[in-house]
Amino acid sequence: MAQREWADKNYYADLGVSSSATDEEIKKAYRKLARANHPDKNPGDKAAEERFKKAAEAYDVLGDPKKRKEYDDLKAMLGSGGAFRGFGNAGPGFPGGFRGTEEEFDLSDIFARARAARSGGGPAEDGGLGDFLGGVFNRGGSARHATRPSRGADVETDITLEFREAAKGTTIPVQLSGNVPCNACHGSGSTSGNPSNCGDCHGTGFTSETKGAFGFSAPCTTCHGTGQVITDPCSTCSGSGTVHRTRSITVRIPAGVEDGQKVRLAGQGEAGRNGKPAGDLFVTVHVKPDEVFRRSGDDLEVNVPVSFSELALGDTITVPTLDNAVRVKVPAGTPDGQILRVRGRGIPARGSSKKAGDLLVTVRVQVPSNLDPAARSALRTYAQAEKDAGFNPREGWAGAR
Question: Are residues 106 and 29 in the same domain?
Answer without folding.
Answer: yes
